[in-house]
Design brief:
Strand content: under 5%
Helix content: over 70%
Number of domains: 1
Structural class: mainly alpha
Oligomer: single chain
Shape: globular
Largest sheet: none
């Protein structure tokens, strides 16, 4: 399929990925965790700059995620298909709730409604995205759903207490780890789902993922507790599985992004947003990043790119 890129989403998506990467480094790594730096860099002036920039990077990334989803909803609303309208309505309700869910004055309705609307919107995107797709794509969508839904269950006791329901909701931590297992397994099915559209870029297709994996490998062996703390606080991965599972997952995920970046940029951008969102989806900003990533990965290109010119049929992925 030959596509003429749609300017409506191109610029916001590129800006969102770029600013979210800056937010990940400045806010989560440097400000929240206080990542150790050389003494020549970690000066009081540098700490002041980081403290000043951190909230701005979060706000900018949230605003761009908000605008990207609004534009995606606008594109979907222009399509008369019922399934597209359902996704668009879910997006609009979700971004509205994301504005108020962090304020305690709104009561229990938003606290309970946001996870429910997130789940509804996520499932609507995945169902629409895998219609007529391959088995690998359908399994990958199911694993995405399972991983994200289990990330919310850890807050189930709090939600049940808010709505005054006396039901036991234990094992939240175990289910959260089960979602991590599903996310790791999903990298294998993502590889098979994306493989037909991947474009190998010579040595970069293998060297870049290998370098990224090696950096993680060396850092983990040098200080496993520190790396586990960083991954848990930034992307919600506790690294409870055997280490080789994460090494393979990192290599496959990086390989897919490198192979997609030239001809399937939306796929690469979507996978990047999925990584940056992590599994702390209780934070509304990260939930919007995850939904934006799923939109870019699973919705057919002619939907998100209405100016697309196709010479052959293309599936959801």
């Amino acid at each position: 399929m030959q596509l003429r890129r749609s300017p409506l989403l191109d610029l916001p998506v590129v800006a969102l990925v770029t600013v979210s990467m800056v937010e990940f480094v400045v806010s989560r790594l440097l400000f929240n965790i206080g990542l150790p730096l050389p003494k020549t860099v970690a000066t009081p002036q540098f700490a002041t700059v980081v403290s000043f920039l951190a909230p701005f990077t979060v706000t900018a990334s949230y605003f761009l995620a908000f605008m990207t989803l609004v534009l995606a909803a606008y594109i979907l609303l222009k399509n008369s298909a019922v399934q597209h309208l359902i996704v668009a309505v879910g997006l609009l309700v979700l971004i509205q709730l994301s504005l108020v869910v962090s304020y305690p004055e709104v009561g229990t309705a938003a606290s309970v409604g946001y996870p429910a609307v997130f789940a509804f919107t996520m499932i609507s995107i995945l169902v629409l995205g895998v219609l007529g797709s391959s088995k690998s794509q359908k399994i990958s969508a199911a694993l995405f759903a399972g991983s994200y839904l289990t990330s919310y269950f850890i807050n189930a006791p709090l939600i049940l207490d808010l709505i005054k329901v006396d039901v036991y909701a234990g094992h939240g931590a175990e289910l959260f780890q089960a979602g991590e297992l599903l996310a790791i397994i999903n990298t294998i099915f993502l590889y098979f789902a994306f493989r037909p559209s991947l474009r190998e870029r010579g040595w970069r297709s293998f060297v870049v993922p290998s370098v990224i994996t090696m950096i993680f490998f060396v850092a983990y062996l040098a200080n496993p507790w520190a790396i586990t703390t960083v991954t848990m606080l930034t992307i919600g991965f506790s690294l409870f599985l055997p280490f080789p599972a994460y090494a393979v997952s990192i290599w496959l995920y990086s390989y897919i992004i490198i192979g997609s970046i030239r001809e399937h940029k939306y796929h690469a951008f979507g996978l990047a947003l999925i990584f940056l969102a992590g599994r702390h989806l209780q934070l509304s900003y990260l939930g919007l990043l995850a939904i934006a990533g799923l939109l870019l990965i699973f919705l057919p290109r002619p939907i998100l790119e209405p100016q697309a010119i196709s010479t052959s049929k293309q599936g959801a992925i």
